Structure prediction request, 612 residues.
Amino acid sequence: MNWATVVYSMAASASLTLALIHGFIWWRQRDAWANLLFALAAMGTAALAGCELAIIRAASTIQFAAAIRWANLAAWVIILSLAWFVRLYFRAGRTWLLWTVCALRTFSLFLNFMTGQNLNYREITGLRHGSFLGEAISVPVATVPNPWMLVGQLSIWALVVFVVDASITVWRRGDRRRAVVVGGSIAVVLALSAAQTALLVLGKIQPPGTPSLFYVVVLAAMGYELASDALRAAQLARDLRAREEELTLAAEAVSLGFWSWEFARNEFWATDQWRAMFGFATTERLDLDYFLQRLHPDDREMTRQTLVKPDPKNVRYQTQYRTLLPDGRLRWIASQGRVEFNENGKAVRLRGVSVDITHVKQMDLEVQAHRNDVAHLLRVASLGEFSSGLAHELKQPLTSILSNAQAAELFLANDTYDLGQIRDILHDIVMADRRASDVINGLRLLLKKNEFQPVALDANQLIEDVLKLMNNDLMGRGIRVATELTEDLPSIRGDRVQLQQVLINLILNASDAMCRPAAHPYILTLRSIWMEGIVQISVADTGGGIPSGAEEKIFAPYHTTKPQGLGLGLSLSRSIVQAHGGRLWAENQATGGAVFHCTIPEWKGEVDLKQP
Ligand code: ADP
Prediction:
């Protein structure tokens, strides 16, 4: 075996090995088209090396010409594969140039079989012996070049232009290494092999031609880049697994479950953690109806409305619902997600996370229960403050009932009595009794321990009810009450007892502030106004006002300036108003004294789901 045989055989076997590796990669991953094209280029190179070996070992001109003819078929495979490889791998290059390369090369393959002895020689008249790497080889003599070779040459130079153009685009994108290693090596090697072939055929240089050896260099550069990509992908996969691991740990720590819902197939995918939250088995197939069945009946429709018909303008959604587990336990789940659209802008899936917030809800319930207890205690305590007024309020109708009853007795003692007068007396008794029972009912409600029960309320009526209870007490303190109530207010959404308590707190504070000798005259003003979606109630006094800068501090729990004060009235009032979706704040009036404003949203007839 001579050296030339060794070199061409090595080039062929190296190319075949690369072709096998990348062919296998493509076989396992059918969308890896760059690997398939690389495998084809490598197979073509192996075939070309075989043809070149046959050329230098040809025993006759016929064998020599045939070997060149088949070498042109191998070159066709290599050039087309390289062109499409560059296009796919770089995602760049002009399409018309690519098709020009393909057309020219295919046409030259046709010319290869149809004109002259092959694409390169019209005629080869004889062979002589030459030498290559110190060994004897066949060299053609008295040859006539085939002018159609120009088409083949053009195809290669068109490919060089195409590759350079695509490499410039990749370079500009910032991927300079890829542009130089792959683009640069392909362009240089193509140019060299085209020049060598042309010079060889024109007899300007000595045979043999070695394009296959050039292409092996290109394969090495391309293989290096593909291998680097594979290594990068492997590293990314490792990083991804690590991130997934971290995410799973974090999700487990905070009871978080991931899910997605495909609209077209109506199918849920979810993590095991999410399935466990709803009591679903890990293998169970889930669709929307099956999922909704697991929810509390009261929350199903609301959740369905939120999930279906995604609004393209509002791609995010947030909701809370209760789920009833198969063992009868109830859990609160908070979910939020985002709609995903395909490239045509069609909503395809909803992807989101859910978190178990049962313990938060339980804490809310406990806090609310405590707040109710404190509120109740404060109500009982504040009733004590205006009890003298209340006693008077009750004494009045009772005295009236007594005196009317005594008068009736006197009338009845006479034989002749006026039935009309008796009727009037009885009517007065009924009215006085009603007044007394109104007062008692008001007290009973205030003394009762109540849960939060929002209903539609008339804010003006609320103010008047509270004033009725407190009127005598206020009069006893020398306080004049003024009301500026806007008529035809919309209803507000509130709990009657809780809002009465807020007003009582504010009025008691106002009357405390006005009981200082300096503040005269004592005027308590209650106002109601309506603004976009809310009703605002204000309680103003002519007291000493709030010390400057303390407008927020007074709402802090246990902040008091009164010797017997608890400092809980305002903080409790604020939390009540906030639970109603409103605001409570204070400011000093320019004319003196403080004013407290409280806003409550309008009643919209909605069903309340936020309050447990
Ligand atoms: P308490 O009445 O038990 O002190 P509150 O929370 O109701 O508790 O009030 C906290 C403090 O806010 C009061 O001690 C007082 O200093 C101040 N304050 C409340 N209302 C007024 C008001 N109308 N004018 C001036 N200061 C007020």
Remarks:
- The pocket of adenosine-5'-diphosphate is lined by residues 505, 509-510, 513, 541, 543, 545-546, 554, 559-562, 565-571, 594 (CB under 6 Å).
- The chain has a mean pLDDT of 88.
- The longest strand covers residues 121-132.
- The CA atoms of residues 21 and 609 lie 62 Å apart.
